[in-house]
Amino acid sequence: MKRKLCTLLTALLLIVPAFAAGQHVSVDSIGLSVDVPEDFGVFTQEMDPSAPQLAQFGFTYDACMQTLKDNNIVLQAIAPDQSYSVVVNVFEDSRTRGEVEYLQLSDEELTKMAENLVAAYEKNGVSCKPITLYTENPAAKFMRIELTGSTGDTTTPPVIQYATVVGGRGVHFTLLEPKSGAFTDEMEQTLLSVVRSAAFRADASVATETDFTPLIVIVFAIVLLGVFLRRKRRKAAAKPKE
Q1: Crossing angle of helices 222-238/107-123, nearest 10°?
Q2: Alpha-carbon distance values, 46 to 69, 86, 176 (Å)
Q3: Judging by DSSP bridges, how do beta strands 73-78 and 41-44 pair with one another?
Q4: pLDDT tens, position by position, for the chain (242 residues)?
Q5: Which uninterrupted H or E stretch holds 222?
Q6: SS3 state at 209
């Protein structure tokens, strides 16, 4: 019996580190901490200008900071082969401060919000799979959102995102379109491991003031929708009138 138990424990130890081992990263200014895979390059707005991952991934400090700040990115974790990355956006404004935390909503209430969001996407020509809930992180409830393409004239890149509102802040964990053009189970498991590890400090504030629409309070990916709609209107305007 002892031999079987030892064998089982050994097998578990061989499996768990792939998800458990990693870098513990804190973004102090907004009170967020997460675990990311050990071999990923981690970039934050608080990183040291001489951080070795800048040279490793071929980035300059100034260009990296500009990209992060321009896109409200507080953390980006890039796979060692740079085939995909996980991005964390955190924002706060008058609308998010008025939002009820997802953790305080019932699953039924959150599901209804998700159904309304899917309808809004579809109405505007963006294909969105049914939104599901992720409730295994005791610190927050998340909506899992997957945009799969276009239903009209717009061009929508694939996106998988876990979105929440906590402490008056919108927090979004996004798996960006990989170089291969298709998400794999391994990629989403990486994203999910980061989401599962996320912890939030209630007394932290976010300096970023945004002017997002109410839908964007729910999910940062909707920013893409505005871009696609503008492109759609420009294409329509450019067509010669009969």
Answers
A1: 20
A2: 11, 17, 22
A3: antiparallel
A4: 444 434 433 333 333 333 445 899 999 888 899 999 999 999 999 999 999 999 999 999 999 999 999 988 999 999 999 999 999 998 887 767 767 889 999 999 999 999 999 999 888 888 889 999 999 999 999 999 998 876 566 566 788 999 999 888 889 999 987 877 789 999 999 999 999 999 988 655 444 444 333 233 333 333 333 333 444 444 455 555 54
A5: helix 222-238
A6: strand
State the DSSP string of 1-33. Answer: -HHHHHHHHHHHHHHTHHHH-SEEEEEGGGTEE
Q: Residue with structure tokens 């031999």?
A: 3
Ramachandran region, residue 48 (left: φ > 0; alpha: ψ -120 to 50; beta: rest) = beta
Is residue 70 a contact partner of residue 78, using CB atoms and an 8 Å limit? no
Place of tokens 């990183």: 47
